[in-house]
Design a protein that fits this description.
Rossmann fold, alpha/beta, 134 residues, 6-stranded mixed β-sheet
């Protein structure tokens, strides 16, 4: 299954030990991870500025994600109105990459439920649906 992890999920997977780290490992092992240049750029900024992780660790993680994920470009247009333009670029890339789902911790996006038939799931929802439901 093609899975697009939002920046906040990827950042939490590195910066904190818990569900997002386990989810990241499961997606790598069992699914096809999708990402975009916008996510990688935002990830670098957040890990460096917000989490204050060492630059060499951030760079190594970015390179890991680049190496294991399929980099997709935003080529489609979304029919839903998304309030944050930064989210539009990322969701459009996920749709353009034919993601089966978009996993995020962003409450505004989670309230949408889906965008153009692509489910928007929290990390917990993804875990329950695709890991525990085996």
């Amino acid at each position: 299954m093609r899975v697009f992890l939002d920046t906040n999920v990827l950042a939490s997977a590195l910066a904190t030990r818990g569900l997002c780290a386990d989810l990241f490992e499961a997606v790598l092992a069992e699914h096809d991870l999708l990402t975009s240049q916008a996510v990688l750029d935002e990830l670098q900024r957040i890990l460096t500025d917000k989490f204050r992780l060492p630059p060499e660790l951030v760079q190594a993680y970015i390179e890991l994600v680049e190496g294991v994920a399929e980099l997709v470009k935003a080529t489609e247009t979304l029919s839903a109105a998304i309030p944050d333009p930064d989210d539009v670029v990322i969701l459009t890339a996920a749709r353009s990459g034919d993601a089966a789902c978009f996993v995020t911790g962003d409450k505004v996006l989670l309230e949408l439920g889906n965008v153009d038939a692509m489910p928007i799931l929290s990390p917990r929802q993804f875990w329950v649906r695709f890991r525990l439901g085996r």
